[in-house]
Amino acid sequence: MGQGGGMGVSERRRRRWTVADERKLAYKRIRKGRKGKGYVRVVTNIGHLNIELHCDKTPQTCDNFLQLAERKYYDGLAWHTVIAGYMAQTGDPSGKGGAEVSAWGGYVKDEIRTSLRHDAAGVVSMANAGRDTNRSQWFVTFAAARQLDGTHTVFGKVVGGLFVLQKMESEGETGNPLTVERIEVLVNPIRQAREKLERERREAGAE
To answer: What family is this protein classified in (predicted)?
Structure first.
């Protein structure tokens, strides 16, 4: 079949590279930069949690979470699993598993970092069904859970609202429903890096 007036092979390859590797370039810049932390406010029906995201250490995991938050994917979802002394988990529309998705549709690979551990209350980490099966479910610890180190990607920590986390733990014991009303994205360094890359491309094209 002739190419006619369509896109040439080299052009198609260039565009595929742009789509596939733009994220990686943004991630690389964030890892090397000074402003690699993201921030969100998780508004629940009993108060809000301020969370710092380790975009500089787990960029793809944070990107997945931030994109889903910006799409309002998490808004209205239940904390479907709340275990006192352990954690509260959310991110699945069905509350039963299997209905969740990632920002890109498939699975997100683990980003295990030895410097990020489940060593305290307020650690934010990904739920999974095994190696490299991350999608949209995540949890916050009520206490240290070192047995999860090495198998679950830690990507953030609660930096404000620990008293709300304590209340979530006690409310969960009573069986009262807990929900994520919305997630407000306050700082998204990954989006900022992408926008800077886009500006640089436009400026280079204008020269």
So the answer is: Belongs to the cyclophilin-type PPIase family.
For residue 4, pLDDT beyond 50: no
Residue 130 zone, left/alpha/beta (φ > 0; ψ -120 to 50; rest): left
| Dist CA 40 CA 157 (whole Å) | 11
pLDDT digits (tens, 9 = 90+) for 14-42: 555 465 577 888 898 888 877 799 999 99
Amino acid identity, position 179 = T
**C-alpha–C-alpha distance, residues 202 and 174, integer Å:** 56
Distance of CA 18 to the CA centre of its chain: 22
Question: How are strands ordered across the β-sheet holding 38-44?
Answer: 81-83, 87-90, 138-141, 123-126, 154-160, 47-53, 38-44, 180-187
Three-state SS string over 48-98 comes to EEEEEECCCCCHHHHHHHHHHHHCCCCCCCECCEEECCCEEEECCCCCCCC
Residue with the larger pLDDT of the pair 171 and 197: 171
Residues contacting 187, CB < 8 A, separation 6+: 37, 38, 39
SS3 197: helix
d(CA 68, CA 60): 12
